[in-house]
């Protein structure tokens, strides 16, 4: 199971947080902070696994992360997930983002966090991996976006041309 | 209305959207909080509007703010509103918001049930998808209960996109509503073979998640997963399955054996590191599970270790890390193979990556020996000095202690060295593990008598320098050490050089700042020291010193009398009064030392940590019964005595201490960190502060500039562990030299568990301990019960999912879904009719079957597995049993009337055997030895049977006449149960046998009799179509002949051909003569004296329209091939006016099937048979078979004379025997109109022919 997926930048600003277990907002922020603290102090060329922080789960949990340019992608998983598999999944996630946003950068994530959520929802559902095939993910995301567009076209709206 | 919309739109012109909000926040970096609060006010306004678009926009913004840590639960109702919008765009926003902030406590969640249900059944797949995604995040027990059925329906949706989501979410539903697992499981299992890889992967995912927590319930799925593993190419799925197998193998060693080959192949072939790694991991798990039974897997171990070495040597840190992780698993069972890579692991200790160092530390545990312990620990101590961050340092500390103390200090040759290591460790600043060090000190001092003098001296030193440890109360974790120090000094005070000085140190005012329980120990042990001082001085003339001591106590103790801690206060005032009294006596020159030391006479022995628990309950004592009636009010809230005395037992105090302190400390540390993080003025201390040891008393209040020295300064008098390293080396050198002279005159003494030391390499034997070490073993009560109590966490949500699924809906012994187990269905009128498949199942099942609880069954299975060893005995029984059956078996001789059909129709076939899935699994597992051409394959048999036998050899023989008294109560009862079950089982079987007697039926073609008699079809399924084995032999205008061939069990060379003659004409038929042309192989048995070409007279005449049956016996030699015999029937047609001689040619077809005899087989015998390994296997695949599974089985049973051994769901094992005693075993599985039959027989050609015939049968329908 994946317990949480976090994206934050080099300064610890959250860009996406998805918790598959409920925590209060304060705890969530604390987890993000702690995770950032743990991850950010690591060198570039050390392993991408980290025995979990105290806050999420127990000893069974691991942090698996990747660092891309200004962003950290962190998955908190338990022992039923394959470590290398999750690393691949992060790669798939980032590549998918790259395809969907066309050369993704931090700003895309900042302004379109909802879209990132929608993409993520096609990959991971309720903490379990739903789809790992990038093409399939993109197909579904595109189909839904198309639907959204058609709705906006039919029903409205003066705002659109702003 | 229109106006309103326009107005709404205009309003929206001024709204911010998400992007505006983000931009705004970025532009207001200085007063972000203020800006956001105005935004929230705006959002509140927007939410008040009727326009759903406005609301959705607001909710979208709230979702963003939620991520920034703002509580948006106040908008929960608005989120529900947006969720229920008919537009996908808004719905998606709503569900996203809900998934981010709804949880079980959200009360509006119950309003969503119907909306979600509507979305789930929406024609738009993305509406459904979004609802499922959302639900997966906030499903509550109520939602799970109400929606379980809807989601189940979606599992069979036409769109794979929906199917995979529905499958995946079922896991969440199971967690929240465990009752849904049983009803949903069959369908979930079905999805493992879904044509869409995504759905398949989801199903694998869910089952793996389930099985991880309760693996034993999913063991029966192993064959299916095995198939997936060998067929799937999706690495993600493969990884999951392989991980699952890792969890299953410990439960079934045979599975492991079957796995090794394909896994090894994967290891060699795959290019994906992730897959390779998981394979290695599972192979390790297999090897661990096999390690008890199988001696020869060194090749596999070597392969694993070799692959892991490659990983560890890789420049990729990730692989290095994982390699070490896996290595530590091998270490547990095959330490030798890991030890050869010591160089590599020690090298990893120096890695710059902390995660890797930690993993390497884990491995060190198995690397140490007497020889290198000091060296390794020295290395670790260096790391301790260098380490940054307390976590890693604490980890190092615990590892050092673990390594040294493992198996009763097995590797320690010099305890002085160990004590000094412990003392050095006390210098660690800010460690959480003070109590760990303390308990080690106590343990060593108590159990190693020879070391006490040294230990006491060290502890006195520690007490003297106590201020260094307690300098900072925040870090008082380490002051626990003083507890140990004080106690050791007090208890073994006779070894103290200068007890007076130590006493003085223990009574310093600063002590009052220590935690209460430590002060208490101080006070108590001050009294012990006092008695020692008295004794020392009384003998001499110097009575002044003794009096001074009393005076000191009287001066200092009042400080403790005033303590807020009750314990301290009480002890201090007692001792103060005592000392005052003693002082009086001293002034009168009375000798008191004797009396005072009597207070502390006697020695404490170490007690094993679990000793208390293991005291057996005496006979006749019922601990659960009330001695007195319980008081009505609970008084338990009264303060509990802190049991300080109990803590003086070293081992006892440890675990409890750890728990409390760790939690509390962790909490405090967290709070502190938090506070520090938020406090800009806080300057974090450099981690190496306080490394300096100072000896000047009274300077602690002077702010000291912290000097960061890589080598800690020496404290005069405090030993450095390093010096021991040198000493030890010298000593060993010398010893070696001595030894050569003395020629092994020395006999090394071993004590207690220390005997295990033998296992060390030979060279270690030479190393003798520096002291004569007497490791006192811990005391245990007499008659201690052997017990291990590894209780599971009662709060684990997965506990509720420990549900036996094997007997679910399976053919033979299944526990149907009780009414209470059905998924709640909407009570709508329309829905009432459309109840799901599961509904109605099992309603007609007799209560009796219901009672067979899953537990019972599991036990039986276990029973069976375990008892394989003593199955000889059982076998005898069974043989006897079989004989009975055989005798009862209807011996069909050629004669008489066809059997009436009426009785048969009543037989609602009873369960054949009890452990359906077990033997199914057995069947599958048994093929292991046949398939892989391993080295062991040369010996055909032992592989399959030896595994379970050896591993279970220790299992108690449940056949034992009387359970021994020693055995725990539980075992007893379960044994009884087993016995009972066995009896029941046998009874059942007998009953069945009687009922089953119908297996060969003699039908009239037109009889229309129902033949659902075959075992295995117990469900109240649609009735079987009428079946008949009689096939047409020949026909003309007068007569029709149909025939059936049955083997004769009594005589292995005979078959009986029953022919029904039917008169189709209006004439009378008589003088019928039946003749065949014999072949070499098959001959018609003719009466004595008849020639080889004579026909046999049919013993009746046929009036018009009448039919009758005659039987002819044939003798056959070889039965492995089908055969056709030509024959002729001659008869006279007699009409009123004329009679003509007529003749009809026919071909009698002896199929191989006709040589088979329906023979019942018990699952366990069946399993044994399969295990024997001398069966050849073959398989068959039938496409496009469109009939219910039970029909299919019935057909095989009926037409091919098989009996069902067990059936589970869409899988059944069947058995038959030829007249010459060949065993034929089938495993029939069906999925999607495809039937696959795996068969085994000791005669391959017979098998091949039988399979061909089965194929024929199904191609006809």
Automatic annotation (TrEMBL), chain A:
Bilayer topology term: Peripheral membrane protein
Keyword DNA repair included in the entry's annotation: no
Subcellular location field: Cytoplasmic vesicle membrane; Golgi apparatus
Pfam families: Clat_adaptor_s (PF01217)
BP-aspect Gene Ontology terms: Golgi to vacuole transport; intracellular protein transport
UniProt-listed CDD domains: AP3_sigma (cd14834)
Signal peptide: none
Ranges where the AP complex mu/sigma subunit domain occurs: 1-147
GO cellular component terms given for this protein: AP-3 adaptor complex; cytoplasmic vesicle membrane; Golgi apparatus
Superkingdom field: Eukaryota
Tagged with keyword Membrane: yes
Main location: membrane
Family matches, as InterPro entries: AP_complex_ssu, AP_mu_sigma_su, APS3, Clathrin_sm-chain_CS, Longin-like_dom_sf
Primary role: Part of the AP-3 complex, an adaptor-related complex which is not clathrin-associated. The complex is associated with the Golgi region as well as more peripheral structures. It facilitates the budding of vesicles from the Golgi membrane and may be directly involved in trafficking to lysosomes. In concert with the BLOC-1 complex, AP-3 is required to target cargos into vesicles assembled at cell bodies for delivery into neurites and nerve terminals.
Protein family membership: Belongs to the adaptor complexes small subunit family.
Protein name per the record: AP complex subunit sigma
Native source species: Astyanax mexicanus
């Amino acid at each position: 199971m994946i317990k949480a997926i976090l994206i934050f930048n080099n300064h610890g600003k959250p860009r996406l947080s998805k918790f598959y277990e409920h925590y209060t907002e304060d705890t969530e922020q604390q987890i993000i902070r702690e995770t950032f603290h743990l991850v950010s102090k690591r060198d570039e060329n050390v392993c991408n696994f980290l025995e979990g922080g105290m806050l999420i789960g127990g000893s069974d949990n691991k942090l698996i992360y990747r660092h891309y340019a200004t962003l950290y992608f962190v998955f908190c998983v338990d022992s039923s997930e394959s470590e290398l598999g999750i690393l691949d999944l992060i790669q798939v996630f980032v590549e998918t983002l790259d395809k969907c946003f066309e050369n993704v950068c931090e700003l895309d994530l900042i302004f379109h966090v909802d879209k990132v959520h929608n993409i993520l929802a096609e990959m991971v559902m309720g903490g379990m991996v739903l789809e790992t095939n990038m093409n399939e993910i993109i197909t579904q995301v595109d189909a839904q976006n198309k639907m959204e567009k058609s709705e906006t076209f039919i029903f409205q709206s003066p705002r659109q041309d702003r | 209305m229109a106006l309103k919309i326009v107005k709404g739109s205009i309003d929206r012109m001024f709204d911010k959207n998400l992007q505006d909000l983000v931009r705004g926040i970025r532009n207001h970096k200085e007063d972000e909080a203020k800006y956001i609060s105005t935004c929230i006010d705006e959002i509140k306004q927007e939410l008040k509007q009727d326009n759903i678009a406005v609301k959705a926009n607001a909710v979208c913004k709230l979702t963003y703010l939620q991520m920034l840590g703002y509580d948006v639960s106040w908008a929960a109702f608005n989120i529900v509103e947006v969720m229920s919008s008919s537009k996908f765009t808004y719905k998606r926003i709503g569900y996203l918001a809900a998934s981010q902030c709804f949880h079980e406590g959200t009360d509006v969640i119950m309003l969503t049930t119907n909306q979600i249900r509507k979305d789930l059944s929406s024609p738009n797949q993305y509406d459904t998808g979004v609802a499922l995604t959302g639900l997966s995040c906030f499903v509550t027990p109520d939602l799970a209960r109400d929606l379980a059925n809807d989601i189940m329906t979606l599992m069979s949706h036409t769109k794979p996109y929906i199917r995979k989501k529905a499958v995946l979410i079922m896991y969440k539903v199971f967690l929240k509503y465990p009752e849904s697992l049983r009803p949903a499981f069959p369908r979930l299992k079905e999805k493992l073979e879904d044509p869409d890889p995504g759905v398949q992967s989801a199903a694998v995912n869910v089952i793996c998640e389930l099985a991880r927590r309760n693996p034993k319930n999913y063991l029966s799925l192993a064959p299916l997963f095995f198939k997936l593993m060998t067929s799937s190419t999706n690495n993600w799925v493969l990884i999951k399955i392989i991980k699952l197998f890792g969890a299953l193998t410990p439960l079934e060693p045979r599975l492991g054996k079957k796995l090794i080959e394909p896994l090894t192949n994967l290891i060699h072939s795959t290019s994906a590191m992730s897959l390779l790694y998981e394979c290695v991991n599972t192979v390790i798990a297999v090897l661990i599970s096999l390690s008890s039974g199988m001696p020869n897997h060194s090749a596999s171990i070597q392969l694993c270790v070799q692959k892991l070495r490659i990983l560890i040597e890789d420049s990729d840190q990730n692989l290095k890390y994982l390699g070490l992780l896996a290595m530590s698993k091998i270490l547990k069972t095959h330490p030798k193979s890991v030890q050869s890579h010591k160089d590599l692991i020690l090298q990893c200790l120096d890695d710059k990556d902390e995660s890797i160092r930690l993993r390497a530390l884990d491995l060190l545990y198995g690397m140490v020996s007497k020889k290198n312990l000091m060296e390794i620990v020295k290395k670790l101590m260096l790391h301790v000095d260098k380490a940054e961050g307390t976590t890693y340092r604490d980890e190092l500390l615990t590892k050092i202690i673990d390594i040294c103390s493992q198996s009763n200090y097995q590797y320690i040759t010099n305890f002085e060295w160990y004590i000094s290591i412990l003392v050095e460790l006390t210098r660690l600043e800010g460690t959480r593990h003070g109590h760990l060090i303390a308990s080690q000190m106590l343990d060593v001092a108590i159990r190693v008598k020879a070391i006490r003098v040294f230990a006491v001296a060290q502890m006195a030193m520690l007490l003297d320098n106590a201020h260094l440890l307690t300098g900072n109360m925040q870090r008082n974790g380490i002051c626990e050490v003083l507890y140990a120090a004080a106690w050791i000094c007090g208890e073994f005070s006779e070894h103290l050089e200068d007890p007076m000085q130590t006493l003085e140190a223990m009574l310093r005012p600063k002590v009052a700042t220590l935690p209460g329980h430590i002060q208490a120990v101080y006070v108590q042990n001050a009294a012990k020291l006092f008695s020692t001082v008295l004794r020392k001085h009384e003998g001499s003339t110097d009575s002044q010193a003794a009096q001074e001591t009393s005076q000191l106590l009287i001066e200092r103790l009042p400080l403790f009398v005033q303590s807020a801690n009750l314990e301290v206060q009480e002890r201090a005032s007692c001792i103060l009064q005592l000392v005052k009294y003693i002082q009086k006596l001293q002034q009168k020159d009375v000798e008191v030392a004797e009396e005072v030391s009597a207070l502390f006479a006697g020695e404490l022995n170490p007690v094993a940590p679990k000793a208390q628990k293991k005291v057996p309950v005496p006979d006749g004592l019922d601990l659960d019964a009330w001695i007195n009636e319980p008081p009505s009010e609970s008084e338990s809230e009264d303060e509990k005595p802190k049991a300080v005395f109990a803590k003086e037992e070293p081992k006892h105090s440890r675990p409890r201490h750890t728990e409390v302190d760790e939690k509390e400390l962790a909490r405090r540390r967290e709070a502190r960190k938090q506070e520090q993080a938020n406090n800009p003025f806080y300057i974090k201390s450099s981690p190496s502060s306080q490394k300096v040891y100072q000896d000047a008393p009274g300077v602690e209040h002077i702010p000291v500039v912290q000097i960061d020295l890589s080598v800690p300064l020496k404290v005069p008098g405090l030993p450095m562990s390093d010096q021991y390293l040198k000493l030890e080396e010298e000593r060993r050198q010398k010893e070696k030299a001595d030894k050569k002279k003395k020629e092994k005159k020395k006999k090394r003494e071993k004590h207690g568990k220390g005997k295990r030391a033998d296992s060390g390499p030979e060279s270690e034997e030479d190393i003798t301990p520096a002291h004569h070490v007497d490791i006192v073993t811990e005391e245990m009560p007499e008659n201690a019960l052997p017990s291990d109590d590894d209780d599971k966490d009662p709060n684990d949500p997965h506990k509720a999912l420990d549900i036996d699924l094997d007997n679910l809906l399976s053919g033979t012994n299944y526990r149907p879904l009780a009414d209470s187990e059905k998924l709640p269905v909407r009570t709508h009128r329309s829905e009432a009719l459309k109840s799901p498949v599961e509904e109605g199942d099992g309603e007609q099942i007799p209560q009796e079957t219901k009672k067979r609880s899953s537990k019972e069954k599991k036990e039986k299975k276990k029973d069976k597995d375990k008892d394989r060893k003593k199955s000889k005995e059982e076998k005898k029984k069974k043989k006897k049993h079989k004989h009975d059956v055989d005798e009862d078996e209807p011996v069909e001789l050629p004669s008489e009337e066809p059997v009436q059909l009426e009785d048969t129709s009543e037989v609602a076939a009873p369960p054949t055997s009890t452990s359906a899935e077990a033997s199914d699994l057995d069947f599958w597992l048994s093929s292991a030895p046949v398939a892989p051409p391993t080295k062991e394959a040369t010996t055909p048999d032992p592989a399959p049977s030896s595994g379970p036998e050896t591993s279970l050899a220790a299992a108690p023989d449940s056949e034992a006449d009387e359970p021994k008294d020693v055995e725990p109560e539980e075992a007893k009862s379960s044994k009884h149960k087993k016995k009972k079950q066995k009896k029941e089982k046998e009874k059942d079987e007998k009953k069945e046998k009687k009922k089953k007697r119908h297996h060969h039926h003699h039908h009239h073609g037109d009889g229309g009799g129902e033949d659902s008699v075959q075992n295995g079809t117990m469900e109240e399924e649609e009735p079987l179509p009428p079946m008949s084995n009689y096939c047409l032999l020949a026909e003309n205008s007068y007569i029709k002949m149909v025939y059936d061939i049955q083997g004769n069990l009594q005589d292995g060379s005979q078959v009986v051909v029953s022919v029904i003659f039917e008169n189709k004409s209006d004439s009378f038929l008589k003088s019928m003569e039946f003749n065949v042309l014999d072949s070499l192989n098959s001959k018609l048995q003719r009466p004595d004296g008849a020639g080889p070409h004579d026909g046999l007279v049919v013993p009746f005449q046929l009036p018009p329209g009448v039919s009758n049956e005659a039987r002819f016996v044939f003798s056959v030699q070889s039965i492995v091939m089908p055969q056709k015999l030509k024959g002729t029937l001659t008869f006279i047609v007699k009409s009123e006016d004329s009679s003509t001689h007529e003749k009809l040619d026919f071909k009698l077809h002896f199929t191989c099937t006709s040589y088979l005899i329906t023979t019942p087989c018990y699952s366990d015998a069946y399993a044994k048979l399969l295990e024997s390994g001398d069966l050849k296997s073959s398989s068959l695949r039938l496409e496009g078979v469109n009939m219910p599974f039970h029909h299919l089985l019935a057909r095989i049973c009926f037409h091919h004379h098989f009996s069902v051994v067990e059936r589970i769901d869409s899988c059944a094992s069947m058995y038959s025997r030829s007249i010459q005693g060949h065993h034929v075993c089938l495993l029939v599985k069906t999925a999607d109109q495809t039937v696959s039959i795996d068969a085994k027989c000791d005669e391959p050609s017979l098998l091949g022919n039988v399979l061909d015939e089965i194929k024929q049968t199904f191609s006809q329908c």
